[in-house]
Amino acid sequence: MKLSKPKYIFVTGGVASSLGKGIISASIARLLQARGYAVTIQKLDPYINIDPGTLNPYEHGECYVTEDGAETDLDLGHYERFTSITTSHANNVTTGRIYQSVIEKERQGDYLGKTVQVVPHITDEIKRRIQLLAQRKEFDIIITEIGGTVGDIESLPFIEAVRQLRYQLGSRNTALIHLTLIPYLAASGELKTKPTQHSVKALLENGLQPDILVLRADRPLSSDLKRKVALFCNVDANAVMESVDVPTIYEVPLMMHSQHMEQVVLDKLDLPSEQEPDLGSLKAFIEKIKNPKRTIDIALVGKYTELPDAYKSISESFVHAGAVNDCKVKLHYVNSEKIDASNVEEKLGKMAGILVAPGFGSRGIEGKIEAVHFARTKGIPFFGICLGMQCAVIEFARNVLNFKDAASTEMEPSTTHPVIDLMEEQKGIVAKGGTMRLGAYPCSLQPGSKALAAYGTNLVYERHRHRYEFNSEFLPDFEAHGMKAAGVNPESGLVEVIEIPEHRWFIGTQYHPEYKSTVKKPHPLFVAFVAAAVAYTEEQKK
């Protein structure tokens, strides 16, 4: 279907953060896609950073990178994984970016001497950003997730902008979905609706009446409870949905569909729903996740392991690849700061595969190098991503090429063997935000390589986020001793993929393949890595 003008859905949250607005937004988009509508999703984040690129992963989880090089909130990863929609700079907007734009316009004299205020100048800029995706004339429905919680000081300009936009666009062109928490009090054995009532009251105080409520709970909700919520919150009884805990996030669209979520949304937007949704492929995918034929153990070696969301795209890529291989990947998060030669066998010896994760800085680097050495010498399937690939290069240089001080100039600027060095175009750049090599670049894969066998095509486009690269001056030394450049950028010659052909499966990529793995299209390198780990496990049993 193609509408002349897009309709808008706004998703807000109340009571507590981290209830899953991103998953709900992605689930609604998936269901509307199945109904034949072209959908996109954007995230409005209330923090003052221009983007999350400079945030510590412990602060906000992983930084996701889009095809066009935007450093964004991790929820955009959920949007792409659920829907296979390619997101862009326009799909993630922060308070920092809004204020930056308004201040730049003020400095240029765009406001003609007027006093610049939150209303109307900041809210007008927010509304402009919300509607920016409509200019592409590709989408029937634009879903906008508002970060934070209703009642937060930081969120108020966004809430006000949504109020204004709903008034300007008309009640049949927008829908507001509010996600709240129904907590269970073990002491009294009750589910409590009062937090939801207060959350909706906070919305009403800001001029917004939700059309649909999604009640997050750890157990099923009774019809009486949902009717009570509907009555106290001025919402139709059929527009109160429950979102209970499920074994996998990919079941959420099915749970919403069972409650007729997309039908209620379409009714609110005055849109037809003639096409019955085909969710067969999603159901088959979930069936494979829930009923694997085997389980394998893979170590994820990194320095942010206390917060799994720091590696969210990687963990979800393993879910996708596991389903393809009819197995469950049990990820073991291993802190690289706690690995050394004395305990590496204990920590990694029982693993079917070892992935060394991306990162920045020197902390935990020697533990990552030790993990690479263990995987290489013990013949365990290995996958290195970004810094993980660079660690593989350093380990090989030290222990095979005998370059004992081999290092990256990021950690050791004075090394005599800078096998990893700052990219030429990065030299002289001082600013940190958004200045790395970001987004999709081409990579040409070499004939006979395992990477080519995995992809099935010799030219791929993958997303990057780095400043340092393989120093090609040393490439002849590496290739003479068994580590090959399996993929290079056809324009710059940058080494994108390294392999050890004699190893059962040893691949490192300078790019981040995890950013492009989706339910519909699991990433081929993760699929091949898991397949190698399965084969390794079977061999160990003999």
Automatic annotation (TrEMBL):
GO terms for cellular component: cytoophidium; cytosol. InterPro entries: Class_I_gatase-like, CTP_synthase, CTP_synthase_N, GATASE, GATase1_CTP_Synthase, P-loop_NTPase. GO terms for biological process: 'de novo' CTP biosynthetic process; pyrimidine nucleobase biosynthetic process. The active site is at C386 (nucleophile), H512, E514. UTP binds at S17, K192, T193, K194, P195, T196, Q197, K228. Residues 307-530 form the Glutamine amidotransferase domain. CDD domains: CTPS_N (cd03113), GATase1_CTP_Synthase (cd01746). CTP binds at S17, D152, I153, E154, K192, T193, K194, P195, T196, Q197, K228. GO terms for molecular function: ATP binding; CTP synthase activity; identical protein binding; metal ion binding. It catalyses: L-glutamine + H2O = L-glutamate + NH4(+); UTP + L-glutamine + ATP + H2O = CTP + L-glutamate + ADP + phosphate + 2 H(+); UTP + NH4(+) + ATP = CTP + ADP + phosphate + 2 H(+). Allosterically activated by GTP, when glutamine is the substrate; GTP has no effect on the reaction when ammonia is the substrate. The allosteric effector GTP functions by stabilizing the protein conformation that binds the tetrahedral intermediate(s) formed during glutamine hydrolysis. Inhibited by the product CTP, via allosteric rather than competitive inhibition. Keywords: ATP-binding, Glutamine amidotransferase, Ligase, Magnesium, Metal-binding, Nucleotide-binding, Pyrimidine biosynthesis. Residues 7-271 form the CTP synthase N-terminal domain. ATP binds at S18, L19, G20, K21, G22, I23, D75, V246. It is an enzyme of class 6 (ligase). Mg(2+) binds at D75, E145. Residues 1-271 are annotated as: Amidoligase domain. Its EC number is 6.3.4.2. HAMAP family: PyrG. Belongs to the CTP synthase family. Catalyzes the ATP-dependent amination of UTP to CTP with either L-glutamine or ammonia as the source of nitrogen. Regulates intracellular CTP levels through interactions with the four ribonucleotide triphosphates. CTPSs have evolved a hybrid strategy for distinguishing between UTP and CTP. The overlapping regions of the product feedback inhibitory and substrate sites recognize a common feature in both compounds, the triphosphate moiety. To differentiate isosteric substrate and product pyrimidine rings, an additional pocket far from the expected kinase/ligase catalytic site, specifically recognizes the cytosine and ribose portions of the product inhibitor. Homotetramer. This is CTP synthase. It comes from Candidatus Alistipes avicola. The lineage of its organism: Bacteria, Pseudomonadati, Bacteroidota, Bacteroidia, Bacteroidales.
